[in-house]
Specification:
about 230 residues; Rossmann fold
C-alpha cells in the first residue's frame, strides 16, 4: 500500500490536514500540497489517495485546483482508491461528473451534524461491499457548497444530513468515495476553526457564532472510516 494525502489547505495556521489524518492513520502518509505548487506524482503510483478539504471554493476554482481535477481523473482511471473529504468530496464530483455536479448550498452547514447512511434504510449493513459508511455518526461540518443530488446516474448517495442531501457518495463501481463532513477534526480543533473563520469571513460570522453556541456532537469515527478506506 502507498498512501498519498493531497493537502488542499490554504493556510496551515488555520487547517492542517496532514497532522489530523496522520493522527488517525497512526503514521504519516506521503503528501503533496497543490496550493503551494508541489509537483504531482505519477497517477497510479499510489494505491490510496485522500483529498483533503480546503478554504477555497470548488465553484470558483483556481489554476492549482484545475490541475488537481485533471490528476484525479487520471488517477481514477488507473484504479487508485480515492477518498475525498469536504472540498475533496466536491472535487471528485466535478472531476468525474462535470462542473454542474456541485452548487452553492441553499443550507450551508457549520458545527456538528448527525449523518445518516442511506445504506441502512436500504437494508445495507456492516458487510455491505460498496459502502464505506454503514452506521449513523456525528461529525464536524463546514461547507458553503455541496454535491448536487441526482446530477449523474453514477452518483451513489451513501449518507445524508438534515442540511445536505449528499453527505457521502461513491462514484459508480469505482473505488472512489467522498464525504462532505470532516471526520478528522476533533471538537477542540473544530471550535478553533470556527473562531478563526469568524474573523476571516466576517460576512458569515453569525453562522459561525451559532455553530459555536450549538451542541457539540462527535462520534470520533474518523479512525474507523480511514481504516476501512485503507483496507479496500
Amino acid at each position: 500500500m502507498r498512501f498519498l494525502l493531497v493537502d488542499n489547505a490554504i493556510d496551515h495556521g488555520m487547517y492542517r490536514p496532514l497532522e489530523h489524518w496522520a493522527a488517525l492513520a497512526g503514521f504519516e502518509p506521503e503528501r503533496v500540497h497543490p496550493p503551494g505548487g508541489d509537483p504531482w506524482p505519477r497517477p497510479g503510483e499510489h494505491t490510496h489517495v485522500l483529498l483533503s478539504g480546503s478554504e477555497s471554493s470548488i465553484t470558483a476554482r483556481e489554476a492549482w485546483a484545475e490541475e488537481e481535477l485533471r490528476w484525479v481523473q487520471r488517477a481514477a482511471r488507473c484504479g487508485a482508491r480515492i477518498l475525498g473529504s469536504c472540498w475533496g468530496h466536491q472535487l471528485i464530483a466535478v472531476a468525474l461528473g462535470g462542473p454542474d455536479c456541485v452548487r452553492c448550498s441553499p443550507t450551508p452547514e457549520f458545527g456538528w451534524e448527525r449523518i445518516e447512511p442511506v445504506a441502512r434504510r436500504g437494508g445495507g449493513g456492516p458487510d455491505a461491499p460498496d459502502a464505506l459508511i454503514v452506521e449513523t455518526f456525528e461529525a464536524f461540518v463546514s461547507h458553503f457548497d455541496e454535491v448536487v443530488p441526482g446530477c449523474r446516474p453514477e452518483l451513489r448517495v451513501l449518507a445524508t444530513s438534515p442540511g445536505c442531501p449528499v453527505q457521502a457518495l461513491r462514484w459508480g463501481d469505482l473505488p472512489v468515495w467522498g464525504i462532505q463532513a470532516h471526520p478528522e477534526i476533533d471538537p477542540p480543533t473544530g471550535r478553533s476553526f470556527l473562531e478563526v473563520a469568524m474573523e476571516r469571513w466576517p460576512d458569515h460570522a453569525a453562522r459561525f457564532r451559532a455553530a459555536l453556541e450549538g451542541p457539540v456532537r462527535d462520534s470520533h469515527c474518523g479512525r474507523t472510516l480511514l481504516a476501512r478506506f485503507l483496507a479496500t
